[in-house]
Amino acid sequence: MEAIQSALRRQKIDGWLFYDILHRDPIAYRVLGLDHVLGKRRWFYLIPANGTPRKLVHRIESATLDSLPGDKMLYAAAEELEKGLKKLVGRAKKVAMQYSPKNSIPYVSMVDAGTVELIRGQGCKVVSSADLVQEFEAVWSAGQLESHRAAGRAIDAITQATFKEAARRVSGGESFTEFDLQQWIGAQFREMGIVSDSLPIVAVGPHSGDPHYEPREHGSSPVRRGDLLLLDIWGKTQTPGSVYYDITWVGYLGAKVPEKCAKIFSIVRDARRAACDFVKSALQAGRTIEGWQVDRAAREVIRKAGYAKYFVHRTGHNIGQEVHGAGANMDSLETRDTRQLIPRTCFSVEPGIYLPDFGIRSEVNVYVSDRAAEVTGPEQNEIPALLA
Fold first, then answer.
1. Does residue 367 contact residue 142 with C-beta atoms inside 8 Å?
2. What predicted TM-score, i.e. pTM, was given to this entire model?
3. Per-residue pLDDT averaged across 16-28, rounded?
4. Coil, helix or strand for 202?
5. pLDDT-derived band of residue 36, with 50, 70 and 90 as boundaries?
6. pLDDT digits (tens, 9 = 90+) for 360-377
7. In a domain, 383, yes or no
8. Which among 30, 96, 159, 245 is least surrounded, fewest beta carbons within 10 Å?
9. From its phi and psi, is residue 280 left (phi > 0), alpha (psi between -120 and 50) or beta?
10. Is residue 385 in a domain?
């Protein structure tokens, strides 16, 4: 609480106003440490820059915010809600909410337009909480960094084992699909204590050119000799509060990697390196950088190579307890993320080129400390030929 109030004073914001109904804002629950809240009625919680927090909850869910400090007000009728909001906001002239002007950072836009109108109706300006969210949701503890490294050791091993398993099956003449190989990875997750919000991407041929391809039991492609195999694997340990590790590697199920695949991979690899080197050099020099600038560093490499139209997504996303975390994204394409990269946060760098017949993506995770950045796992530098 003290740290949040200090941040509010530093940013010259009168308060951070949290609001939810039906668990629509997971950020609020994580920042406030709320567990087992019914949440079928609207609740509001204001942390002021100075003074005691205030809460407004429905009478039939009056215990909703009892785990949090502050003065409690109750409402039932709409008229009571209006009066309660006036008291809740008080003299505040500017409050932060999970809102983003023109939805420019959609990943923190959890509050609906009508609720923003309600708060503005109290004579209060609503600003985005995006920077506060990053500071109090995306920053890792030492334990979370260790959980990331532990997940990384397991996932790196699973990735290489998957390449070997695919090569073994192809060499042995087995018939199997992308879905079958995905399920095999799921079994490795269970054996090694890794959990994930969903199973990984396993893609061959044109499917590797679909950045968010999902193998299904029916309709997945067979995996065969001569296929480029893309593996996008993410997961975390089962430790409470653990954070994700998220990588993408590609391999070739043959004795010699085709020249076209090798060429495209080299461009993607150089784009990945350019983004990582940009972050490292900027932090070593003590310069502040924003997410969109990292994206631009990678995108420029691909643009100069003549493949700009085939790089159709942002360069990277924040990583946290959710694989797509609430901190700064490396994005100048889908949005222009102007949030600064701050210490003890982590993000992916994953440029890609997606052609009609195949796609290449290369993904690493970058952890930022006070004046440095590190890639937290192995970096792929060439496509391995998986068969003799």
1. no
2. 0.94
3. 96
4. strand
5. confident
6. 999 999 999 998 999 999
7. no
8. 30
9. alpha
10. no
Measure the CA–CA gap between 279 and 298, rounded to whole angstroms. 11
CATH number at residue 214: 3.90.230.10
**Cα distances (Å, whole numbers) of residue 266 to 222, 259, 263, 375:** 27, 11, 5, 18
Tokens 């990735």 map to which residue?
159
Confidence of residue 35 (pLDDT cuts 50, 70, 90): confident
- pLDDT tens readout for residues 176-191: 999 999 999 999 999 9
Q: Is residue 387 part of a domain?
A: no
| Residue partners of 291: CB distance under 8 A and separation at least 6 | 328, 329, 330, 331, 337, 338, 339, 341, 347
Query: Cα–Cα–Cα angle for 179, 314, 367, nearest 5°?
Result: 90
* Domain coverage including residue 95: 2-137
Two tokens, residue 215 = 């193998």
How far apart are the two ends of the chain, measured CA to CA in Å? 60
Tokens of 182: 């995905």
